[in-house]
Amino acid sequence: MKLVTYVNTFLNEQIKRTSNTLTQKTPEPKKRANLRDVAKVAGVSVATVSRVLNEPGVVKKDTLEKVQAAIDALKFVPSAAARAINSGRTRFVGALVPTLDNAIFARFLAALERTLSERQLSLIVATTDSDLEIEAEKAQSLVDIGAEGLIITGAAHSDALHDLLNRTMLPAIVTSFYDAENPLPTIGYDNAAVAQLALQHLADLGHRRIAVVHGPVHDNDRTRTRLSGLRALPWTGELTTYETEISHRGGAEGARRICSQPQKPDAILCLSDVVALGVLFGLQAEGITVPDDVSLVGIDDLPSSAVAVPAITTVHLPVSQMGEKAADALARWISDQERPSAERLEGRLMERQSAIPLRSI
Amino acid sequence: MKLVTYVNTFLNEQIKRTSNTLTQKTPEPKKRANLRDVAKVAGVSVATVSRVLNEPGVVKKDTLEKVQAAIDALKFVPSAAARAINSGRTRFVGALVPTLDNAIFARFLAALERTLSERQLSLIVATTDSDLEIEAEKAQSLVDIGAEGLIITGAAHSDALHDLLNRTMLPAIVTSFYDAENPLPTIGYDNAAVAQLALQHLADLGHRRIAVVHGPVHDNDRTRTRLSGLRALPWTGELTTYETEISHRGGAEGARRICSQPQKPDAILCLSDVVALGVLFGLQAEGITVPDDVSLVGIDDLPSSAVAVPAITTVHLPVSQMGEKAADALARWISDQERPSAERLEGRLMERQSAIPLRSI
DNA sequence: TTGACATATGTAACTAGTTTCATCAACCTC
DNA sequence: GAGGTTGATGAAACTAGTTACATATGTCAA
After folding, report:
1. A234 to chain B, minimum CA–CA distance in Å?
2. Which of A301, B86, B122, B246 is the most exposed place for a label (fewest CB within 10 A)?
């Protein structure tokens, strides 16, 4: 309101407008000043104003000051849409993650958003519910509305998404997954290695019968890769897998299923910490003590794992670092056409209290 | 430039382009078709194509089909930026939340995003780290890049943000907070009432000495309101407050501080479930049993609270519903100029195992 | 003094849509 | 058959920026 009044008054001397205002019930939603307004106020051409914004070096000092003053007076902010239309740069990217409900993605996104915003890029978050069809749809609409790049989770996607990426050749980075051979640059950990780290630890502690509790394998290549990593480890123990929902509830249910088996495992390996904490609760509910009755190992290293009682031994995944690196790589790819190379982040075993050597009977 | 090449090929049958391609090292990032291209292919004017997109009813059937065919053939998708420039509608809104690290906000955002996307609106998430200065800055840049509306958390904000909202009169909805008198529409729960619900429950169970563990009050009106709600309850017991970080770690530390006091409280009331779970862990680490030694109550009703052992008695906050309602209200406000009225969502006590009647000695 | 060149700025054409207004044909009424 | 109305479409102006090109001025060397 104030702005419109201001501009009109200023440019067209429509003083009568003041009385208009009185008769209006809805205080009209004020327009913001545009380049032409600034140019008129500063007494220069629109080109000069544009130069002040984009290459101030070429503008003479006192012209620059005049324009700057006009910009301040009108509180002028260039329209992002108009800029986007010419430059093709919309200054936002999209991230496709399975869910916000798992802290591991929330932490990743927090780092991603922080780093992107340092690069003057906004982030649009789209959740896919771990459904590759939904993922492809949301990717399409991100592209349609002008995303300059995508962050996607995992390497396996629907044909529709692969097509989209091939057609548009949009900068897109795969995260939570490392594979140097992947057609798209991957920035993440080697999921097979990460799972092996956890299993090897249990093996080193002497455990032989191990229950693996994991999330859905459908539409989730990270879980599949972790599982095949486990199976690929040269080790002669016995693995039993339990698929469940990735949630505390899912973990608790996994624990119940394990307890209903005739023979208890030596240890339980959970492919994510959310599930591990759920399993811990589930075991407690069944009166089973960790680690005395059974050892427990997770993967992710969520903050809760360090605080739980017993503290959960897990594999630390550097998701914040992954967010920063993915943001940096994507920002550079967009601005310099510099396609990043794959980057492998290492998981690290965090030995805590939930896994102890197998008691010899 | 690239666009010219593409259009030429398509429209003027410049077959030589094939050989061009061979000499090019970089497979050019093919630009998408625009309105003019579609119009040319369909043999109609740009106005007609625009009508097909926006008011297909007024276009004759066979013209419509011709245009539709051209759109499909060229895989034409209208540029969001160009639309935004004329209509002023950018079709995205911004949400300012303190953090993604607390599941309560992650759950809220998930519902918000889901509902907004049904209304063809994208969501840009900005985290403020519970800092009102950062909040104002991020709000400003959301507005600068064209957000059509804002979702903000809590009613207390910096002058800069209030100024921004007054100046632009942008649709903005306050969530996680109910106050019918607030200048902006609020959609949320009455934080004082919610805290009272929890305290009343403990009071009803006979507890008299209650430790309250809560997050920072600085820059957080929700916590302040909950605390003053507790103090306003007509009740003669004794409250001791412990401020800590909102995290599992913060809760555990709170538990340690409580345990270091000469006299133990009857019960512990945590103003958020994340803290409550941390307190539970902290107490377990100190060898104190919940609920036998001390009762514990939280607020939020995160999924983990139902699964924890003991399951944590808490006040359920309908955050998913809040996300849906906020999204609906904001979408309607934006499209119909229909300013929503405040909406109060009720918290609900979830009685579980962590709080039991005070044992008479 | 003139030409060569750099510097600073303006004009107008561009980006990709929407929208106003004009045009034209078809149909209906008198 | 003239006039009025409606329906469908197009030309061109408009949104708010960027940018290619033109122009005006100033500096310096020949």
Report:
1. 36
2. B86
